[in-house]
Amino acid sequence: MKILRVYERYFARLIYGVFAFILFAVLSLFVFFDMLSELESVTGRYTSLVAFFHVILQAPTRIYEMLPIAVLISAIYVFSQLASQSEFTIFRVAGLNTRQALFSLFKLAIPLAIATFIFGEFIGPAAEQYAQKIKLEALGATVSSGFRSGVWVKDRDRDATKGHEVTRFVNVAGLRPDQSITGVTIYEFDDQYRLSVIRVAQEGHYQGNQSWQLSGVTETRFLELPRGEAGKADPLAPAFRGEQHALSTMAMRSELTPQILSVLLVEPERMSTLDLFRYIRHLRDNKQDTQRYEIAFWKKVIYPLTLFVMVALALPFAYLHARAGAVGVKVFGGIMLGLSFHLSNTLFSHVGLLHTWPPIVSALIPGTLYLLVALGALRWVDRH
């Protein structure tokens, strides 16, 4: 056990040291390219300094995305060096077998998996949302959903005058950085599901406790005419009449909250699992498609576990005896392997969405395939 503790500390010092360097190098490269991309949007209040701050706030998300690749490259580099200098052979002669080495690497991957979870759940989504708000404020723009019809919310309320329950469909065209909403349209139906009120508001501000303050409201009410007035003998006579009123402000109670609207600022893949869970539940309540968000949810759940797959993929490189000159080739192969995992992870998300696969299957396929490759390679090097 004492020997195992010694080699685990040795592996940890080598892998963590190389990992920190590679992560810094990869992150610097992505920040540089992101900054070049943001320079195209620099204009007026959105200065180069604001653009740089926007890019820096996106760095935690980049760290989250690059962690598995950085772990794979660093582990491959370390094990290639150990193989070229016959150090790993000495550990094997001392009694280290493949299973022990694999479980030791899993132990070293636990802190990195925890760091991936923290960046993906807390640091990354919060920084990403703040980065988008800064950019929108500088550009003086609003954000809306990817649909032309805006965001639709179904909720229920009680009519203050008649006392019965009413069903409402609320449509929001856009969300401002201060979480106020614009282009609000409300369709209200009575207990017999007949359209009774249409309200159009220029903007709304959240007051807390699911309460909104609408301003610039135009309200159209449809009132049922008495039977005699409606003209019972004439089938073409109108049964309803419309009344329109203009209101400067109006209070509205709705299930629509800034937490639900905040998903418009961040892509599903960059949201936290809690926000994804809340939005998926909201979409289900409104009978809307949830598959894209469910795939993103399961990918977020599984993603920290991919670090264990990465260290398993790197271990076979320790069994390949080669001269020191071949280390660069192995590292290049590790980079290609890591990029292929990143691309396949994105690919299967789109393929699963296209073919309506179960979301958990779409999220599991890339990691499962690479885990099988890792186990197959370990079995082969253990026998040879």
UniProtKB/TrEMBL annotation:
Cellular compartment(s): Cell membrane
Pfam families: LptF_LptG
Entry-linked InterPro entries: LptG, LptG/LptF_permease
Main location: membrane
Protein name as it appears in the record: LPS export ABC transporter permease LptG
Record field: transmembrane: 12-33, 63-80, 101-120, 301-320, 327-348, 360-381
Membrane topology: Multi-pass membrane protein
Coiled-coil parts of chain: none
Sorted UniProt keywords: Cell membrane, Membrane, Transmembrane, Transmembrane helix
Organism annotation: Cupriavidus basilensis
